[in-house]
Amino acid sequence: MAETQTLLQRVAEQARRDPGRIRPVLQALLGDQPETTKALRQVATDLNESRRRAALEDFMAGSLTTEQAMKLLPGVTTRQGVHRLRDRGKLVARTIGNASWFPRWQFGEHGLRGDLHQILAAIHRSTEDAVAADRIMRLPRQELRGRSLSEALESPRQRARAWQLLLSIGHGG
């Protein structure tokens, strides 16, 4: 309830500051034909950019740089070695700017997690994108009592259910 109130307060404040910008959005939400689709298109573009930026920031926060990943990979002593693993499909990563980011859930205490090959095979049935793969693995899931797939795969009690959910990705699950 408090979150809704805060959201409504923010909408009201935005409506006072820039009524022309928020009016088409409210009209669309109410099912009315917006007075101007150009304004609505700009709001949608801004919202999409904001969501994209937030997703990338969340991705980087849960990821390791190439150097950090290298330290967790026994026998890998160069940046090129880490990138070779990515090129061969043994790791997922995303290059942002001039840095590569490797989701942390791919690593265990002593290198790559033992089930990573199977996890990536399941994820790659629906996406090759590292940010999407990271969201699949790290978003809390109601079916797992608020745990992510990554967390649940580490839990003996939830592992079977987590695998069920993971394998259903890309198959309407």
Domain module tally: 2
Largest beta sheet, briefly?
3 strands, antiparallel
- SSE series: HHHEHHEEEEHHHH
Got a strand count?
A: 5
Pick out the low-confidence regions.
none
Question: Mean of residue pLDDT?
Answer: 89
Structural class: mainly alpha
Describe the overall structure.
The chain is mainly α and 173 residues long. It has two domains: 2-60, no CATH class; 62-168, no CATH class. It has nine helices and five strands; from the N terminus they run αααβααββββαααα. The protein has helices at 2-17, 19-29, 37-61, 66-71, 79-87, 116-124, 130-138, 149-153, 159-168; strands at residues 63-65, 94-96, 99-103, 107-108, 111-112. The strands form two sheets. It has a three-stranded antiparallel β-sheet. Strands 4-5 form a two-stranded antiparallel sheet. A hairpin with a 2-residue loop joins strand 2 (94-96) and strand 3 (99-103). The protein is elongated and about 60 Å long. 18% of the residues are buried.
Topology:
Layout: H1 2-17, H2 19-29, H3 37-61, E1 63-65, H4 66-71, H5 79-87, E2 94-96, E3 99-103, E4 107-108, E5 111-112, H6 116-124, H7 130-138, H8 149-153, H9 159-168
Antiparallel strand pairs: 1-3, 2-3, 4-5
Helix pairs in contact: 1-2, 2-3
